[in-house]
Every structure is written in structure tokens, then in C-alpha cells.
């Protein structure tokens, strides 16, 4: 029986995460901590005895770098990787590059929280989570899910909000319950799906210290 394995992992800490800047489609790389988070994710997956047949990531460096580091830990650097803009972070529009605390001072906690975590309030000039679902979910349905259902073991390295879009659907969250759903950097979510594409099991892989 196929195990229908789907691992979702948010990239490790990026330079702009460290600086507390809205990032969206901007393209900073990982920090040193981000690199060690990604390696620890790979080591955690290896400890579980997992390996992959297919990998997906976004068009952005921090997600691609995270995936490469994970595959390196697994001894799978030659794996074919599908890259798509559909898995990019939510576009933060005019907020991109602004400091999140400065934004709270300027527009207030509540407004900034709505932009960051509501389902359908887009930041100025950017995408709401609903908009992100509208481009990430078709990609999931057309490319990622068919691979999982064919029996390929699949890993997806992407972003806080593009993965929240997928987790919303997998976990059956609603516009009311999605705002409290947070994804930590470099923490893999290990799903096993049923043949009807619903979730059989979900394991959040606790962070472990990377070995040198
Ligand atoms: O794009 C960003 O700034 C982050 O990757 C996600 O930001 P958020 O947690 O503020 O949505």
C-alpha cells in the first residue's frame, strides 16, 4: 500500500525575518539560524526514515535554499525539484520592506493583525490569504496532490502564508479558525493522506538542534 506521504515545510529564518520586515515576494536568503533550522529539519526527517521522490518549492531563494539543505541532509541532492511562483509567499504589496513594529505604530495593532492573519483583508497593493489560496490551491490540486496519490513521496518547501493556504484546506480550517494558525520556520508537517485525498495523519516534527 502506498504511504501517500506529503511533507510541508516553511523555509528557515530569512534575513528579513530576523530584521522583522514584511517580505512577501522580496527575495532575501536564509540567516545562519535559518540554515541550521533547515539542516535540523532534514535531520529530523532522516531520523523518521523518510525520503522523497518529488520536491516542490517556490520561485524564491529562501524556500529553494531550505529545500536544498534538507535534501542534502537526506543524501538526495539530485532529486528533481519543481519550482513555481504559485507557491510564493503572499505578496505583501506596499508593506513589503516595512518593519512590522513600525507598521503597528503607524496603522495600529488591529489593522496590522488583520492584514497579516485575516482570511480576506488584503494588505494595500498585495494579496489576502484568500487570494493566496486562489493561486496555491489550483497548483496543489494539479501538481502536488496527483503526485502524492500516485504514490510518490512528496516534500513542499514554501512560505508561511502559501503553506497556511494549503494547511487550511488539508486541516479543514475556516476563515474564522485560520487566523490563529501559525507556522514556525523550519518545522516540517508530516501528512499522510487517504486515497480520497483527506488527511489520515499529521505529525508536527519538533525542532531538534542541528548537528554540525
Ligand atoms: O512575508 C513575510 O513577511 C513573512 O514571511 C510572513 O509574514 P507574516 O508572518 O507577517 O505573515
UniProtKB/TrEMBL annotation:
Residues that bind substrate: 10-17, 23-24, 62, 89-92, 100, 116-117, 160-161
Biological process (GO), any one: gluconeogenesis
Sites annotated Transition state stabilizer: 159
GO function term, MF aspect, one: phosphoglycerate mutase activity
Transmembrane segments: none
Keywords per UniProt: Gluconeogenesis, Glycolysis, Isomerase
Name of one Pfam family that matches: His_Phos_1
Protein family membership: Belongs to the phosphoglycerate mutase family. BPG-dependent PGAM subfamily.
Protein name listed in UniProt: 2,3-bisphosphoglycerate-dependent phosphoglycerate mutase
Gene: gpmA
